[in-house]
Amino acid sequence: MEPPEKIRVSIGTAIVLGLTRGRIDAEPTTAYLLTYREGKCQAACAFCPQSRRSSGRADMLSRVTWPVFSTREAIRRASEAFRLGKIVRVCIQALNYPSVVDDLTALARLVKEHSDVPVSISCQPLSRSDLRRLFDAGVQRVGISLDAATKEIFDRVKGSGVGGPYTWSGHFKALKEAVRVFGEGNVTTHLIAGLGETEEEFVKTIQICVDMGVYPALFAFTPIPGTLLSGNPPPSLASYRKLQLAHYLITKRMSRYRDMKFRNGCLVDFGISDEQLKAVIRRGEPFMTSGCPGCNRPYYNEKPGGPLYNFPRRPTSDEIARIEKIFMS
Ligand code: SF4
Question: Which of 31, 134, 267, 297 is deepest in the core (most CB within 10 A)?
Answer without folding.
Answer: 31
